[in-house]
Structure formats: structure tokens, C-alpha cells
């Protein structure tokens, strides 16, 4: 099976977590797109959806699904989103699609975070995937120098502006032995809006699409 088939398998399995009357948070990316398409076909009578990006909002609307403002929903029962990497403790790297900040907000507002991915994202340790960091443009060079001091090699993601009007710096070479600490340390650099480590708010459920079917893991 190709990666898309595995992503679709994981995305469709997440429908089991969606009940009528819920508000559902929806992530961003190619795996989440399969989830949105499955939602459109399933026609579950939820109260509405909170989108983690403009792209997701547009795709939900194209499926005729009701998009709500996070400011009007309060906490939400469930959030479904993909990941670039997941470790055995359900900590994640996200932001390959530059949506990490809004994703972390919606994930943090959710009581349950269901992460959907193909099994290639299941890693013994985070850190092979370059870590996305969302940075206010004014602070780009300063933040890059601080990331070097932390042991990283920063690269500006060319031609990308986030939904919040910021830039993305991708960082390789960081020490991921303590992702909780690294998430906090990077976020203390002035000019950093957020980074793609999801360790303080990690996933609660992992659904991996694999050649042997969906592998479900619960924290
Ligand atoms: O910013 C993008 C998100 O964090 C995505 O959830 C992540 O990059 C995974 O994307 P995909 O499902 O396309 O592999």
C-alpha cells in the first residue's frame, strides 16, 4: 500500500471518535484532508468544526460542514490531526504544513487528541524531521542565532507565510532527549510564537495506518 492509502485508513478510523452533537477540532495536512473527506461522506450530525488553519476551514466548507470560531465554543471534546513524527510517549513533531501554532491551540482546547498518521511516522525518538518554529518576521535573524546557541541548524522556509503572518524556521540537530524541556526552552526565545514540539500537549490516542491494518495506541 502507498502512503496515501495508509493515511486514509488512519483517517477513516478516527470517525469512531466522533459522536453526534460534538464540536470537533480539525487539524491540517494531507492525512487530515482524508479525515475531512470522510467526515463529509459520513454526515454525522455534529454541532460544528473548529479549523486549525485557513486551508482546513476551506476544505470543511467545501464539504458543506459547519465551521465554528474557537472563541465561541469553549473547550472542545475531540481534536483530530496528523503529525510529522510521533514517539512512544505520544509526543509529536508537527508543522510540516506550517500550521503548528493554531494546531497547538486547538489541541490544547480539546479534551481528547486523536492523532492520525501512516506508520512511517511512528519513531523511537523525535528529531529526524526538522523542527518547525513559527517566528515573527522582525525577529527572524535574532531567533536563528539563538537556535544555533541551542545546538541547532536553522533554515528559513522560503516563500512560506503562516496563517498568522509569520515565517517558519526549520531546525535540525537539536537534542530531543527531553522534548518537554526543549519545547519550553525554544518558546522562551523572544520572537518565537510557538514551535512544532507537542510534548506539553501530546496526543491521547495514536491511530497508525499500517500494512496490517490500523494500529491503535492509547496513552
Ligand atoms: O502543519 C502541518 C501539520 O502539523 C500536519 O499535521 C503535519 O505536517 C502532518 O502532515 P501530513 O498529514 O500531510 O503528513
Automatic annotation (TrEMBL):
One of its GO terms (biological process) is pentose-phosphate shunt, non-oxidative branch. GO terms for molecular function: ribose-5-phosphate isomerase activity. Coiled coil: none annotated. It comes from the Bacteria. Its EC number is 5.3.1.6. It catalyses: aldehydo-D-ribose 5-phosphate = D-ribulose 5-phosphate. Gene3D superfamilies: 3.30.70.260, 3.40.50.1360. One of its GO terms (cellular component) is cytosol. The active site is at residue 103. It is an enzyme of class 5 (isomerase). InterPro entries: NagB/RpiA_transferase-like, Ribose5P_isomerase_typA_subgr, Ribose5P_isomerase_type_A. Pfam families: Rib_5-P_isom_A. Pathway: Carbohydrate degradation; pentose phosphate pathway; D-ribose 5-phosphate from D-ribulose 5-phosphate (non-oxidative stage): step 1/1. Keywords: Isomerase. Substrate binds at residues 28-31, 81-84, 94-97, 121. Signal peptide: none annotated. PANTHER family: RIBOSE-5-PHOSPHATE ISOMERASE. Catalyzes the reversible conversion of ribose-5-phosphate to ribulose 5-phosphate. NCBIfam families: PRK00702.1 (NF001924), rpiA (TIGR00021). Belongs to the ribose 5-phosphate isomerase family. Homodimer. This is Ribose-5-phosphate isomerase A. It comes from Acidithiobacillus thiooxidans ATCC 19377. The gene is rpiA.
